[in-house]
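Task card 7
Instruction: Convert sequence to structure tokens.
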Amino acid sequence: MSQELISGTIALILGDTYIGEMEDSALLELPGRRIAVTTDSFVVEPLFFDGGDIGKIAVAGTVNDLAVSGARPLYLTLAVVLEEGFPLADFERILHSVRDTAAGAGVRIVAGDTKVVRRGEADGIFLNTTGVGILERPLRLSSRSLRTGDQVIVTGYLGDHSIHLLSQREGLGFEHRVRSDCAALNHVVADVLDACGEDVRCIRDVTRGGLGTVLNEFAQASTTAIQLSQTALPIRPETAMAADMLGVDVLYLANEGNLCLVVSPDRTEAALKALHSHAESAHAAVVGSVVEGQPGTVRMTTQDGRERTVDLLYGAQLPRLC
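Output:
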């Protein structure tokens, strides 16, 4: 439904003034320089959790969107909408998190805006960030570039962020065993691109909609078919248990520190070696491949050997988390 709203209403009305390609960042040509630009708004609930808070997510999410386009993130803007009565101590805690995450990612805050609305007009605090990065490598990552035989890699455990936040919100008891994976991954992406170059077809930050949505977008954009193996998916037993209890599919759960890469088969080992050198991607694994099949489809071999279609999720499995 979000895709329909964006493509069928927003982009349609904006018409020729919209030049994006529905990727995580727009790549723009300036005299003598290619840059990437992205923007995002953050409405996280709860605001604080084990592994981060809304400030960390805002910086890390924007940095990751730039990084997966092949850019080196440099600058961020920070816009804040505060609800009247929001605790100053919480606001300062969030700003410290923004500062520390930006410093760790090597980016600078260059501009911002602050608005205060009346009590009841916002959910405590909303953040908006815009990121700018430069493209230093002569490559163009795109979901349209998939080829038969390419390997699909995910960089970490699936679903941890959603399960942690939902468990903390609802008091389910899993929040002490499954923590959010929120992290800035620009250094991880840079090492993979250094190791594999143009053999990396595309990278995507696996956030809202989860891996199932990302792979459907890949398959549709490239008119290819993707085959997954359920036994290869990196999923913590606790996350699987919580998802089963809640009646949700881990394939569609949001992550905040997990990437999906599609890499040529002869450079897959090099990509995994680079990923395994970082704590944030130590559990990276090949989970599927691009195959001959009905264009635009994603299929998965289940643990019992059966085949199922991984469709685009229609509607929402869970209440809004971020």
